[in-house]
Design a protein that fits this description.
- InterPro entries: AAA+_ATPase (IPR003593), ABC_ATPase_HisP-typ (IPR030679), ABC_transporter-like_ATP-bd (IPR003439), ABC_transporter-like_CS (IPR017871), MetN_ABC_transporter-like (IPR050086), P-loop_NTPase (IPR027417).
- The chain has helices spanning about 40-45, 70-75, 95-105, 110-125, 140-150, 170-185, 195-200, 220-225, 230-240; strands at about 1-10, 15-25, 30-35, 55-60, 65, 80-85, 160, 190-195, 205-210, 215-220.
- The chain has about 240 residues and is α/β, with parallel strands linked by helices.
- The chain has a 6-stranded mixed sheet, sandwiched between helices. Strands 2-1-4-5 form a 4-stranded antiparallel sheet, with helices on one face.
- Helix 3 runs parallel beside helix 5.
- The structure holds adenosine-5'-diphosphate and magnesium ion.
Length: about 240
């Protein structure tokens, strides 16, 4: 579904991504782990061109995003949902409006249809009773579940998660991971930057360990967690496990 070829990204003199190659298959859950500052968020943002690569290609469903512009690029990006650490909900809009706003603006369906769909998605993430409240009334875990429902409302082919549980109080991390686990079970393609090693180990199909802008090691979770080959991987895991 997504192919990354020789991706480089610099901010001024700072070369952050140094030749990344990746293949993400449909239905796969890919966990990206690695130390802070290693380029994980930059890589994720390059996948949907929120960040423009300095060179290299990002191919999404056969389309080279780095060589696509305008409406066509917008349409492709709409199929790539994104969930951030900080939720990014609109504070002055009710939960249901947060979910329907973008598909409504893009005229994806009628208002009634989109509201029905939004309520179903809220049910899916366990928040059906929160449809008409404002985000300020929600806990961090609830906000993040709304953000996931909002991403789902666009019927994405893939969802990119950037540390979706890092800003949460420990007691609500589990409820967000549970929703993500359900999505994984349903076959949603997911790319998840995470410090939750339990999720990477137990839910993902493929683990990518990044350090210093390079994929240092990748493989099945059993391989990475039980039999890492790269010294940096070993060092990192010894600190976080
Ligand atoms: P990670 O997500 O692994 O912690 P990031 O991708 O956020 O790493 O950052 C990698 C490096 O890129 C850091 O040195 C950071 O300062 C730099 N960086 C990230 N985004 C920007 C930006 N918009 N402008 C300048 N430097 C950036
Ligand atoms: Mg980051």
């Amino acid at each position: 579904m997504i192919k990354v070829k020789e991706l480089y990204k610099s901010f001024g003199q700072n070369e952050v991504l140094k030749g990344i190659n990746l293949n993400i298959k449909k239905g796969e859950v890919v966990a990206i782990i690695g130390p802070s500052g290693s380029g994980k968020s930059t890589l994720l943002r390059c996948l949907n061109l929120l960040e423009k690569p300095t060179s290299g290609q990002v191919i999404f469903e056969e389309n080279d995003l780095t060589n696509t512009k305008g409406t066509k690029l917008d349409q492709l990006r709409q199929k790539m949902g994104m969930v951030f650490q900080g939720f990014n909900l609109f504070p002055h809009k009710k939960v249901i409006e947060n979910i329907t706003l973008t598909p409504l603006t893009l005229k994806k369906a009628s208002k009634t249809e989109l509201e029905n769909q939004a309520n179903q998605l809220l049910k899916k993430v366990g928040l059906e009773e929160k449809s008409n409240v404002y985000p300020s009334k929600l806990s961090g875990g609830q906000k993040q579940r709304v953000a996931i429902a909002r991403a789902l409302a666009m019927n994405p082919a893939v969802i990119l998660f950037d540390e979706p549980t890092s800003a949460l109080d420990p007691e609500v991390v589990g409820e967000v991971l549970a929703v993500m686990k359900d999505l994984a079970k349903e076959g949603m393609t997911m790319v998840v930057v995470t410090h939750e090693m339990g999720f990477a180990k137990n839910v993902s199909d493929h683990v990518i360990f990044m350090d210093e802008g390079i994929v240092q090691e990748e493989g099945a979770p059993e391989q990475i967690f039980e039999n890492p080959q790269n010294e940096r991987t070993k060092q990192f895991l010894s600190k976080v496990l």
